# Entry
Amino acid sequence: MSLRNHQSLKANMTGYAFISPFIVGFLAFTLIPMFISLYLSFTSYNLFTPPKWIGLGNFEKMFTGDPKYWNSIRVTFTYVLVGVPLRLIFALFVAMILNTKSRMVGTYRTMYYLPSIIGGSVAVSIMWRNIFSNEGIVNSLLSALGATPVKWFGDPNASLMMLITLSVWQFGSSMLIFLAGLKNIPHEMYEASSVDGATPVRKFFSITLPLLSPIILFNLIMQTISAFMTFVPAYVISKGEGGPMDGTMLHSLYLFRQAFMFSNMGYAAAMAWVMLIMIAILTAILFITSKFWVFYEAEKGR
Amino acid sequence: MGKKGWFLVIAMLLVLTTACSGADGGGNSGASADGKVKLRIAWWGSDTRHEYTQKVIDLYKQKNPNVTIDVEYASFDDYWKKLAPQAAANQLPDIVQMDISYISQYAKNGQLEDMAPYLNQKIQVADVNENVLKTGIIAGKQYGIPTGVNVLGFQYDPALLKKAGIDKIPDDWTWDQYKELALKAASNKVYFDSSMAADIFFHYYLRTHGKSLYNTEGTGLGYDDDKLFVDFFGGLAELIKKGATPTPEVMNQTKGILEESDIVKGTGIGIWQWSNQYVGLQQVVNRPMALAPMFGPNMEKGVYMQPTMYWAVASRSQVKDEAAKFIDFWMNDVEANKLIKGERGVPISAKIKEAVAPELSEATKQVFEFVASMEPKASPMSPPPPVGSPEVIATLTDYIEQVNFGQMTPEDAAVKFRADANTILANNKQ
# Structure
């Protein structure tokens, strides 16, 4: 027995050797740092002097003594709750257009997906800043149409709206997934419903949406999680300050400021863990409610 | 097969561990038996700065063939993100460029070396103004050697000033005169300036009243009369309201886009900032410009020579002598300073200032002259901002933004800022 064990260990050794870079990397750069950050969230730590244990102090400050924290939560939830549905609706809309039979459809798909490949990058954010600047294309268009130009980065509400439009514009990856989902809906269903005299709107709500619902759930969860973690556009567009009047102070940006500008590493770690728990709860809620609106064919439609 | 597998694992571990210890050893080896010295140096800045700094380093290596120098450079933001973990891991480069807002933090946490024993030994400071050299002293120790000095002032377009109905900026102008002139410009539909950076200019204003933003120990604010806060920020908010200064909406919109700023577009007369920022601005504005001193009363009490930045030596460095020698080269070598051209501030050595004067561009000359005219008037600098100051400044900026947007009164802001700042700074009490 022990001999066989030994032999199988020997045989597996090469395998272990090959995956060891991943294991070492995972331990060194993911798992261990996670536990260290959990420990740090209970300390006061400025990177220079050793961490000092303060128990729940950071969490207490977060929930009771820091209005800017609540502001960042409010801004982040607005960003997620407005941005994600808009992005998904837009993605589905474009996916349906691109699902039609047309000769150029391949080119269009590539074009619409492009923003997502370069999405989230610094370059896109800088471009976005230029588009919405005083003399940018948006304000030029507005004044050409006779409307008053908007101070997109000057007005606290407008600047968050601008961030949301940036996130909506980067709809490519969810669009592709929707497209794949649309292709999976059997064509006969539409034909059958045509025979029964269903209108296109009826077809959309009675066939497309229910059959697409598992994909919608998937996209919804993935996009919600990634939206909560948005950092680069807010950082670049507000020049790292989350302004004006903290209007674009997303949670991740506030966390970054606490960690790297104010050297409050412990507080930042605590913020990160609270955000992790919030995302987990939200995802759980999505899963639980999905029972009521997601339709799986395997269940034969209750 | 199995043996090979184990061998692979062990080899990989070995590579990992030696890679780590390699980084350790490199820093600590210092001067070896054959006289070879390895220096590490780090700075932040623009591409122009990286280029000439590399040239100065090459020149040094040419004159000291036994020295090799590893360089690390980044933009300002990235620099501090990189430096903090290096400090935490006790891996700071031998020579680090330090900013006034960070030096206290690094010095007080034991990361930097007291350079006092090196002065007039390895580093010649005979012809440096004492007030200037003193700006590198934190908690009684010389942790930084200034690379050059800056002074606050008003940088403006004289032609536009005339167009606004103002002949010239009066000598020894006062805070009240400034406000009058600004309103006059507003009545002629020109912005007088683009407002003032809250922390820097409030600190100046406090100094003219014999106070300072932080107390000497860095454990609290350095003034106790909130009326000063209300007068200063209330005055500035009033100017915004009356159109002498762009609204915060406009300021936020154009922030970081120099081409859209009023002074560049010719709709604003001037800008309040540090003298070393003049050369860059002049290039973009591309019209004749001038420098004016700060407003009074008691301008002499308020104005001070601020180090543009410092050179500091890491306390863990094994090659401190060589590091000091390099700093001396930077400060006192004429050839090197002809490459530097005062880009890191007006040189602190009087001899070097004279030696490089003929090499300068017109704008740089103006700066050198302006700084020279202010140097005899300036008072000693307040201690560098204490640990926690970045958070205090961010808090102040937030409240002032709310005041300027008209969502908070200066009175409320004064009280709230005092409470917040004292909470943050209280952590510095031992």
In short: Residues 60-291 of chain A form a domain with the MetI-like fold fold (CATH 1.10.3720.10).
